[in-house]
Design brief:
Helix content is 31%, strand content 34%. The two termini are 21 Å apart. A four-stranded mixed sheet has the order 3-2-1-4, covered by helices on one side. It is of the alpha+beta class and 68 residues long. The protein has a single domain, classed as TTHA1013-like (TTHA1013/TTHA0281-like, 2-Layer Sandwich), CATH 3.30.2390.10. It contains one helix and four strands, in the order E-E-E-H-E.
Length: 68
């Protein structure tokens, strides 16, 4: 499954990164790299939890980054 992380700078200067394919998976950071890294870690945690709970079967994943 492919996942994309979209990121943009907020008015207050923070960066927001969001994984659209996983509702609720978003993270803030001081830099775009920090926000994307946090979102990627959170996405992997969510996927691991779903696998652990038997909600998903294991499959290869690809994560790409897109500027909003």
């Amino acid at each position: 499954m492919n996942y994309s992380i979209e990121y943009e700078r907020e008015e207050d200067g923070r960066w927001l990164a969001e994984v659209n394919e996983l509702p609720g998976v978003l993270a803030y950071g001081k830099t775009s790299d920090e926000a994307m890294a946090k979102a990627e870690v959170l996405a992997l945690r969510v996927l691991a939890e779903r696998l652990d709970q038997g909600e998903r079967k294991p499959e290869p994943i690809t994560i790409t980054f897109k500027a909003a």
